[in-house]
Amino acid sequence: MKTYGYAAQFEPGDDPGIIVVTFPDVPEAITEGEGMSDARLQAADALGTALLAYIRMGRALPEPKATGETISPPSDITAKLAVLEAFAEAGISRSELARRIGKDEKEARRILDPMHPTKLAMLEQALAALGRRLVIGVEKAA
């Protein structure tokens, strides 16, 4: 099961209470927060934005190799990433995806636009049409 989680590194910032977060496997994702809780929230957003940018630029997502505390993008971005990767692997056209989900091609274009927000239910439907299943997990916050 793919989670889109990557190891994060947390370091003190220049100002008191500021935590800087970087991702060795995704160097474009760098952010900071006021305290650890805020730093983790900001890190999830920064990671999601960076991974969507990879897709938009036609780059493959890096394989997670680093170790440490794992941060995942927000759930809607994770689902969008899964759809985009599954679509690329399927080798089908936007028209075919639209047919499979019972929508017009304009809706399929929106679903496949990394920067267009898509409702989770629609992403789940697209994943099903691509032979995938969305699995959501919950764990204790660090």
TrEMBL record:
Q: Which InterPro entries match?
A: TTHA1013/TTHA0281-like
Q: Which Gene3D superfamilies match?
A: 3.30.160.250
Protein name, UniProt field? HicB family protein
Tell me the lineage of the source organism: Bacteria, Pseudomonadati, Pseudomonadota, Alphaproteobacteria, Hyphomicrobiales
